[in-house]
């Protein structure tokens, strides 16, 4: 089966090597087949398509763009082994394209020591000192333009898969071929007054026996040219660049050098960030959505219906008293339901699920502690009070301080995401209530009460999923480590799984 292997250098965790066979792989900040958790990467940044033979990268309209290592911005490019793309501060390198029975597609470009796989190996410029791991200088051949000299303090890079010379095709056998350069011992210095060769003289040297290395370790590099000689003359030995052969799976030894600086003038993509957050909140809630919504609807809907029935049947004075008592009952129930729902959703998200009943029983057993250390901090912008209380075990003042610390990391996205959740639901509730009352009269009041309270239960449950997603996302982006793993250890010791 055709496949391709990518080396992915993240900004917040160790690099990894992954092999794919699917036709499309998407890259994004917090969602996609490859999730980079890079603040300079858009929610949907780019994608790689694979038709079983050709690999192609497409930038799908990212804010900060996609770049080759040489600095060129790319929108759509065919990928071959050795090409590396910079997405924000992350690096994606094509290591292998394995296409059975197709010549040239299975080649592997392997990194040298201290470099990420796919980085071009440094080689010295003509006339410069040899770099580490190289066996000689790259000498221009007759009819070939000389390679450009590197910038001051920089490197000249060896050809990668996308820059192969037509004179050195992939898979060229190691033995000498007609017209090829064979390492020779240095020829003696020509006399100073030797007549120049005619312009029409052939370039090829007289036939000489091929050099056969003796058994044992490979011989060292041939001696450099004597002082005063120039590349391309008969006095200088001609050598080819030595290949780099370190293992492909070896992780980079200098991760800092592979991180590109943030793009200048980069602006946050707020609309895309909000879409990503709302999708992330739903992904957290989805496994428990029915039961979580049901926990709130089972209290809110009956209380609302009874209150309207009292108003319709009983005198207003008595109905007002009973409705107030029902509102008090609902408020007391919510003191237990909100922390219980957080406990239930968190446990499911971390892979150690418990039943809603077990979550309620746990909250009831320590309702005083829950009220002081979670519910009170959650009154004013306490978006993260629930996860902080259950996962970090902090108390009143610490919960408030920690909540505002996390909130300040990305407050605009958090507030706009909550507004994007609440405002459409509130508008929907208002329109539905008006239509039901307008069309059905008294019966419409009861139906409107059921619909509006059900949608309110959905909004509360969705808010719990959204707060949970933001909590782990912000910790991962700004604090690093494995927040889910830490939370799993603490939460798993609280109650046995259901």
Stretches where pLDDT is under 50 for at least 5 consecutive residues are: 106-144, 146-188, 194-214, 227-265
How many β strands by DSSP? 13
- The whole-number mean of residue pLDDT values reads 74
SSE pattern: EEEEEEEEEEEEEHHHHHHHHHHH
Counting helices, strands and paired strands, the structural category is: alpha+beta
Specify Rg, calculated over alpha carbons. Answer: 34 Å
Span between termini: 42 Å
Strand portion: 5-15%
Indicate the percent of residues in helices: 25-40%
Shape summary: elongated
Question: Largest beta sheet, briefly?
Answer: 6 strands, antiparallel
Task: Supply the number of helical segments.
Answer: 11
Cross-sheet strand order for the largest sheet: 2-1-11-10-7-8
Write the layout of secondary structure elements.
Blueprint: E1 3-9, E2 16-20, E3 24-28, E4 34-35, E5 46-50, E6 55-59, E7 66-68, E8 73-74, E9 76-79, E10 84-87, E11 90-98, E12 122-123, E13 156-157, H1 255-258, H2 270-285, H3 289-313, H4 316-349, H5 356-365, H6 367-375, H7 385-392, H8 396-407, H9 411-440, H10 442-479, H11 483-492
Parallel strand pairs: 3-4
Antiparallel strand pairs: 1-2, 1-11, 3-5, 5-6, 6-9, 7-8, 7-10, 10-11, 12-13
Helix pairs in contact: 2-9, 2-10, 3-4, 3-10, 4-5, 4-10, 6-7, 9-10
What is this structure, in a nutshell?
This protein is α+β, with helices and mostly antiparallel strands and 498 residues long.
What does the model show?
The protein is α+β, with helices and mostly antiparallel strands and 498 residues long. Helices cover 39% and strands 11% of the residues. It is built from eleven helices and 13 strands. The protein has helices at residues 255-258, 270-285, 289-313, 316-349, 356-365, 367-375, 385-392, 396-407, 411-440, 442-479, 483-492; strands at 3-9, 16-20, 24-28, 34-35, 46-50, 55-59, 66-68, 73-74, 76-79, 84-87, 90-98, 122-123, 156-157.
